[in-house]
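User: Reviewer 2 asked us to show a designed sequence for the structure in our supplementary figure. I'm pasting the structure tokens here. Could you produce the per-position amino acids so we can include them in the response letter?
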């Protein structure tokens, strides 16, 4: 949510800043801005719209500077326009700041500053930061930043440049990620690695409360209260190739096509055929606690929450441990009853979602053991959980999550196998599951080889419909929710996901000859019930697009269109049934001419409440 990049070093700052913004644009893209320190002033340019607009606006200016900051915004306070875009400055244009997060007490701070004579330009919460620093500046910029931090309530990751300290940039975080890359004679600070890795793989993750003073050849970090800290320099193995489109029209399509590979990565080294069990080293110290847990609470937001629902069904049926699934945003403000013996599992692609992170902290405050299922290595959630499992999906850039969802479901398949074996499944049953899991990547690949043409046809037929219904039961009910979410997110068509049988308690009223209904009707334990639900739709002239199991030729008789997926075990079907729904959403959005990777109003990682 909002992309931040700052540069200090031997080269012209403009290129790393603009390149960095392009790479961070998936975090927010309603306006963008840049500030550069020049000999005797701060050059500032801000525009509403995409990074491309900013790039065009400065392309012909002869800009030369070795120090600068830039930002791509996802609006929280104040509409997206030139004035509300970052960087923001103090009254004298001597300090420029880019900020990510929400300053909850900004109204109080603004009143305090206005009384002191400060003049504000924007409607943003962020603008209080340069004014606070200006107010407290007394010849020592670090001291002024430290004091400003002590006044701010809320979350922030911010980077500042100042005419008073022309050899430095200063960065600080509280709840919003910031990472510093160390190059040769240069440092780049950014809200995530994507803006850094083409320059260096040596990075320092700032921790909450840290304030970093960065010159071109030196880095000094102070904890907000604890004085000097000695940050660890880590080597990251992310490659540029991993975050590029490599010929695909959109990142989302590339990521859909990567799914067989990422599933192989998720299961690599984690299946033990001899014992018919999964091995999850990241949580090895907590296996007994999990086995004996009287309850597991899965906490997540968005697509990760849907993966959590599938996890609930898997763990309950394979391991017979009661599971609940909570939205991070609800859990954090309830009074959750956490007893000794309850384990929380937080699920997050980015590892930075503010509500999930706050729920994690709330659970820990209650003394719960909290485990994580994350994609981004070194993210806040990965760091703050007691232990966790990485899904190894690689960087996900498309705002609509696809491959991370796949990795999360597979991780739950491994976890439920492990717990199931420890509690009730035989070695042979475990081996059957392993056989089925190992087939999934190839089955998915075969679908990717043959499905797109068929789905493109469907997409062309239905792209102008205004409503869709998605139905599924059992393991495939969360798949219906996720299919509907994908369509909403990127095509702006209203879609609802529902448990198929619940349809008759409301949504059935919506069905007429204009309503396409996507029904997941695979040959599982409740197939016949789903067929009855399909009959109910057909009786009301709804159009049925079914996802069925290969070999089920009967299904064609009941529906208008059918997409077949290979057969697998009931609990593994979501790994196959979600693929046609991802592709359908993708092609509908693409045929509607929409920007699939940057859907309006959304952001990849929601680091504000
Ligand atoms: C945003 C993204 C979704 C994602 C959700 C949770 O809304 O657009 O794709 O599912 O956040 O993100 P997380 O990183 O915690 O999985």
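Assistant: Here is a per-position design you can include in the supplement:
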């Amino acid at each position: 949510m909002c992309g931040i990049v700052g540069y200090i070093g031997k080269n012209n700052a403009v290129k790393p800043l603009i390149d960095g913004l392009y790479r961070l644009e998936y975090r927010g893209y309603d306006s963008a801005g840049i500030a550069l320190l020049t000999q005797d002033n701060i050059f500032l340019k801000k525009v509403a719209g995409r990074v491309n607009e900013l790039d065009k606006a400065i392309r012909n200016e002869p800009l030369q500077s070795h120090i600068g900051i830039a930002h791509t915004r996802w609006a929280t306070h104040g509409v997206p326009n030139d004035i509300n875009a970052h960087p923001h400055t103090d009254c004298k244009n001597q300090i420029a700041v880019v900020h990510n997060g929400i300053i909850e007490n900004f109204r109080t701070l603004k009143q305090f500053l206005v009384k002191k004579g400060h003049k504000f330009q924007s409607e943003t919460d962020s603008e209080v930061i340069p004014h606070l620093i200006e107010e407290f500046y007394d010849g020592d910029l670090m001291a002024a930043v430290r004091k400003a931090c002590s006044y701010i309530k809320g979350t922030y990751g911010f980077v500042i440049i100042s005419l008073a300290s022309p050899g430095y940039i200063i960065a600080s975080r509280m709840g919003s990620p910031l990472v510093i890359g160390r190059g040769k004679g240069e440092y780049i600070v950014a809200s995530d690695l994507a803006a850094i890795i083409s320059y260096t793989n040596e990075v320092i993750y700032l921790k909450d409360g840290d304030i970093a003073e960065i010159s071109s050849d030196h880095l000094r970090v102070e904890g907000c209260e604890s004085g000097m800290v000695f940050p660890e320099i880590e080597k990251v193995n992310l490659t540029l190739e991993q975050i590029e489109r490599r010929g695909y029209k959109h990142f989302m399509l590339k990521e859909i096509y990567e799914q067989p590979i990422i599933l192989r990565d998720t299961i690599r080294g984690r299946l033990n055929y001899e014992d018919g069990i999964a091995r999850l080293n990241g949580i090895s110290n907590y296996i007994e606690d999990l086995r004996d847990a009287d309850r597991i609470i899965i906490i997540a937001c968005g697509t990760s929450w849907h993966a959590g629902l599938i996890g609930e069904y898997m763990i309950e049926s394979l391991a017979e441990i009661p599971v609940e699934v909570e939205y991070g945003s609800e859990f954090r403000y309830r009074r959750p009853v956490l007893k000794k013996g309850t384990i929380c599992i937080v699920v997050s692609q980015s590892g930075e979602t503010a509500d999930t992170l706050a729920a994690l902290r709330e659970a820990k405050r209650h003394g719960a053991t909290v485990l994580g299922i994350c994609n981004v290595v070194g993210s806040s959630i990965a760091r703050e959980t007691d232990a966790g499992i990485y899904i190894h999906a690689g960087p996900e850039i498309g705002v609509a999550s696809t491959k991370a969802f796949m990795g999360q479901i597979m991780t739950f398949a491994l976890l439920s196998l492990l717990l199931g074996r420890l509690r009730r499944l035989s070695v042979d049953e475990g081996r059957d599951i392993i056989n089925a899991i190992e087939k999934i990547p190839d089955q998915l690949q075969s679908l990717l080889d043959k499905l797109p043409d068929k789905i493109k046809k469907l997409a062309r037929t239905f792209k102008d419909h205004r409503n869709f219904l998605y139905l599924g039961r059992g393991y495939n009910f969360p798949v219906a929710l996720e299919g509907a979410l994908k369509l909403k997110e990127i095509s702006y068509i209203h879609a609802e996901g529902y448990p198929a049988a619940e349809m008759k308690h409301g949504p059935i009223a919506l069905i007429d000859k204009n309503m396409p209904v996507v029904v997941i009707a695979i040959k599982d334990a409740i197939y016949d019930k789903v067929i009855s639900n399909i009959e109910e739709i057909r009786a009301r002239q709804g159009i049925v697009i079914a996802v069925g199991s290969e070999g089920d030729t009967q299904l064609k008789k009941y529906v208008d269109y059918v997409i077949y997926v290979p057969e697998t075990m009931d609990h593994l079907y979501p790994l196959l049934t979600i693929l046609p729904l991802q592709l359908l959403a993708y092609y509908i959005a693409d045929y509607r001419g929409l920007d699939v990777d940057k859907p309006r109003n959304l952001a990849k990682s929601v680091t504000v409440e």
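For the response letter, you might also mention the following. Residues 399 and 602 are 7 Å apart (CA to CA). The chain has a mean pLDDT of 94.
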